[in-house]
């Protein structure tokens, strides 16, 4: 099992970052946007969970609020890019801190017409 993850995880990490970057670049940088997403998680302990995963940038009181999933941050300027970090631990546990605070076996993220699956 660890050998299977070794090369596949890295390819999926690169593909995930590329697709999220394309999604953000396809929106108007200085305009508000809101995109609904769906996230299905498969945890390492066998549990499964589905949840909404919205991405949005809104202008409010001279600054910008960027939200992704349940996280939110206030910025002085519009966000130029967003990276999704996948961390491989011990060649078997995958961590995606933007999704959950425990290891995953896999996930499927759908945003607009894009789908990222691990």
Description:
This protein is of the alpha+beta class. It has one domain. The protein has one helix and ten strands. The chain has one helix at 2-25, and strands spanning 33-35, 37-43, 48-52, 55-60, 63-68, 71-75, 87-89, 93-95, 104-111, 114-117. Strands 1-4-5-6 form a four-stranded antiparallel sheet, with no helix packed on it. A four-stranded antiparallel sheet has the order 3-2-9-10, covered by helices on one side. It starts with a helix and ends with a strand.
Set down the secondary structure blueprint.
Layout: H1 2-25, E1 33-35, E2 37-43, E3 48-52, E4 55-60, E5 63-68, E6 71-75, E7 87-89, E8 93-95, E9 104-111, E10 114-117
Antiparallel strand pairs: 1-4, 2-3, 2-9, 4-5, 5-6, 7-8, 9-10
List the main descriptive attributes of the protein structure presented here.
118 residues, alpha+beta, four-stranded antiparallel beta sheet, 20% helix
Contiguous uncertain segments of 5+ residues:
none
Helical stretch count?
Answer: 1
Query: How many beta-strand elements?
Result: 10
Fraction of residues in H or I helices = 10-25%
The best one-word shape is elongated
Oligomer: single chain
Tell me about the biggest sheet? Answer: 4 strands, antiparallel
Task: Indicate how many domains the architecture comprises.
Answer: 1
């Amino acid at each position: 099992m660890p050998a299977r993850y070794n090369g596949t995880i890295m390819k999926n990490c690169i593909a995930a970052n590329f697709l999220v970057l394309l999604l953000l670049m396809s929106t108007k940088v200085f305009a508000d946007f809101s995109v609904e997403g769906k996230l299905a998680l498969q945890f390492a302990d066998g549990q499964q969970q589905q949840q909404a995963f919205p991405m949005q940038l809104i202008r409010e009181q001279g600054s910008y609020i960027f939200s992704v999933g349940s996280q939110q941050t206030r910025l002085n300027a519009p966000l130029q890019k967003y990276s999704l970090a996948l961390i491989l631990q011990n060649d078997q546990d995958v961590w995606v801190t933007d999704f959950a605070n425990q290891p995953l076996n896999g996930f499927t993220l759908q945003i607009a017409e894009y789908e990222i699956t691990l």
